[in-house]
User: Fold these one by one.
Assistant:
Number 1:
Amino acid sequence: MGMNSFQLLNGLTFAALLFIVASGFTLIFGLLRIVNLAHGALYLLGGYLGYSTAIATGSFALGVLAAMLGVALVGLLLDQTLLRFVRGHELRQVLLSLGVALVLNDLALVVWGGDSFTVPTPDLLQGAVPVLDTFYPKYRLFVLATGVVTFIALWLLLNRTRLGALIRAGVDDAEMVEASGVNIRRVFLATFVLGSALAGLGGVMGGAFLALYPSADAEILVFSLAVVVIGGRGSLEGAAIGAVLVGLLNTMGQVWFPELAYFVIFGPMAALLAFRPLGLLGRAV
Amino acid sequence: MKRQLAWLLVLLAAAALPLLLSSYHVDLATRILIFAVLAMSIDVLAGFVGRTSLCHGAIFGVATYVVIWASAKAGWAALPAMAAGVLAATLVAALFGVLAVRTRGVYFLLLTVALGMVVWGVCLRWTTVTGGENGLRGQDMRPALLVARENFYWLVLAVAALCSWGMWRFVNSPFGLSLRGIRDSESRMRALGYNVPLHLFVGFAVSGFFAGVAGAMYAFFNEYVSPTSVAMAQSVAGLLMAIVGGVGTLFGSFIGAAAIILLENTVSWYTDRWQSVLGLVFIFTMIFAPEGILGGLRRLAASKGRTR
């Protein structure tokens, strides 16, 4: 369908990035019932932190670490301070997170200014390698691999560990989990911190090939929303399917209708919603 | 009768404002009126249908874009340009409504965020029509009679008063009452035989119409539009005005719009960090005063009435 393997790979690497960001979003949404509209701002913050650390230390790995830890810390503070006041009020939580997004974005503008930055990648990941019938940048393949590894790691966490079992149980019925003697607040907190760290990871990963600039947070947020709406609340597999769909559709849109690329993503999303309002793998609660 | 007299007095007082204020403050008052209409259109959905929308800024912006485009690029006169803008906004709202009526609560909000972002994305990227980042600039869009800012203010005041009356009638009509029924219990209304999706669709389209009127007025007021006018921040500001005024109070939107715009105006004197201040206002409102100014006053009055 008019897409060569280079574009296909572009779509898939973008999908991998989207999965990293959206998986954190969907976990928080699914378990805590918080639509964290600050998730995009956390992504951007992670990107900037990673950029500054990578520039200062010359190490990409340290940049990744700093971004994940830094953003996880912000998530921890957010959950323990501001969100404490509005627990149980779905809509107030969302709107509060929106306020947080505005503040974080503005603070980032103060610290890093309005220029666009690209996180420097290590020498090892520079250059291109032959893939299929084309040459493809190593770094983007690395992002693709990171996405796949993240999916496997999260799947194992959710399906093979006690914490994962608690999270899955919490998505289905948090009250019941609490009634059986589990401190669900700690599970909530762990999920929120994990989800934030994933946003930070996404920030560095994306910051190295999409560049970081003041409105990048809104762009990644809306893509993540599309992924979660398509995949269904709280579903890891749904997020993966949604990410691949949105990633490929976005690439197709950019190739065929560069000016209207957004329509190409949201048309199918809207059509899907008409038939499955809860998304592909979403379940009614 | 007493009530109507009170409203007449408020209207007269508002109409007398330009005689007292400097031209700068007349512009400020015009802006407050325009955004109050936007906030009210959001309140129609949030307060009376129980659907919090974050795409009304985009619907507002569509009207602004279309009016300026029709006026500057197609050379239309003011009235047809305005009509085209409102029509376009209503159509966009109807389209969004078709998609959004199936969702509720946080899902509705999420979907409207995404839909609003589509509009923003199109305005940003479709450079041949929208001018991309640079936006569109109109020139001498107002008819000669309305060039003077006092005259324009009076027109906006009249339109805002008409819109307020229209929305008040809408939410208190039998149709509006059934919307409130849906807000309180969707399943009950469905069991009673009401066509819930159709009601929500009409509610959304009507609300979008009024947002479009506000956007079209803004086009003549500002004579310039860029993707910032359709960005989420616009929807956020509109929603915040509705919330600060008091969701479900409708006319609280005037208080909310005045509070936010006057705050913005004051803060801008001291710092460029308006976005942070807006975010902080959001956070504090959500934590301490979720029912807003007028909502809080009403609750106070109600609790006083009970103790007596």
Number 2:
Amino acid sequence: METINYQNFRIEAENICVDYNGKVALYDANLRLKPGQICGLVGMNGAGKTTFFNALTGFVNISKGKIRINGESVRSAQKDQTIAYVPQNEGIDSQFPISVWDVVMMGRYGSMNIFRSPRESDVQAVKDAIERVDLTDHLSTPIGNLSGGQRKRTFLARAIAQRASILLLDEPFAGVDIRTEKLISELFIQFKNEGKTILLSTHDMIHVREFCDLVLLINKTVVAYGETSEVFTPENITTTFGGISPDFLFGPES
Amino acid sequence: MELCSFLTLDSFITDPLTHDFMRKALLMSSLVAAVCGFLSSYLTLKGWALMGDAVSHSVMPGVVVAYALGLPFSLGAFIFGVGSVALIGFIKQKSRVKEDTVIGLVFTGFFALGIVLVSKIKSNIDLHSILFGSPLGISLSDVKQTIFISLLVVILLSIFRKDLMLYCFDPRHAKTVGINVFFLHYLLLTCLSLAAVVGLQSVGIILVVAMLITPGATAYLLTDKFDNMTVISVLSAIISSLIGIYVSFWFDLETGGSIVLAQTFIFLFAFLFAPRYGIFKLKKLFAGYK
């Protein structure tokens, strides 16, 4: 399964459109990512970042265009556990009565039998994943008792346990402590070396420069896409954010 | 009912058991309570309390029509229960009216239709027993149907226990790893309609929503583990049913109301004294005396 053909794209989105009851959320969007690439998804609130994620995971249907994941349909990507989605902290109910262990185990559900009874390999995968995000002391802690950073790491561990080759991360750095931020950036390097592809949305311009090989600027459609050093210019950012000057966004030096 | 007969706890409990209708009522209500309590964990976590209210009221015309046509009442209830949810979704999508308003107007509409139908059909349907429940007067065919539906719901919930938990917690992840979220959504709705049908025999259509949300809410205050929550929810539902039936027997009170009131008292107790989430946090109180 892990035979990586570096000629092939992990994600290919061609001219995709998404509309909710006739209201256009995203149109003519294109994206091509290879194994080992990290791409930042940048745009205003309501620019279609979450919609883009939803289209790639199959959570919403596209009305036009084509999506290929590792050369196959979104449906078969779901069956193969190819994509892992790491939600925003606000996107989940933190008061849900569930432990770190149980959340991470959910990463294995897709490959389990109908009763979702864990095999030894599943238990091992969950243990390893929790160790990689440094939460071994919190195996049975309810997620409601975790800090924002620990909760973020729990969901990262779920993605690791899933053994997905593509990771979609919604605001991975929002509301996390320094320790978690450092751990996430270390994990990114490991993921890159493992040939995983990462697409992350962020509001933080500094993180884009630091982590992302590529950047996709969107405002209902693609404003600019390419190598971060070339595309992530003040002009493009201004267009993406509807005319707000980048000085306002990063301070005067930029 | 002589006062002296419940001077001893023993006779308080055993005397009613000498009546056939009481044994039946206690057994059936416990079964129904267990089913509703099981489902209750999911509904409270999913935030479907209002949906539970809507579905349980909307089954009314289904029950009436099924009775009139001589069909199993569960069939009619099921069609109208799921139908009401589909209609709520449709109106919400096609109009600018807010969701809670749509839910409110759809279920009251269905409920009113049920009441009108009862008055028109004039069969042997007892409006009072539909509205307020009649666990003491349950017929043999109802017993069979209740057992069948209860087992069906318990089996479905047991098989898809973990998937439903995932669906309530993070449907997006479920979808991403290829789990059929559409199926789970309708599975939960189906169980809700079926549980409403069996629940209405115990406490009636108006109060059945309490059976579907109160035990779950009580359990939610008492634990941080999903499996424990389900167990506590089921137990508190069963205990409330037993208390409600006994109390209604000895004091000659409306049975359905007594059962729900017992549930409400257990919830209030948890609300005040739950170790971690209660107002008075018992754990801390005890810690202070050490």
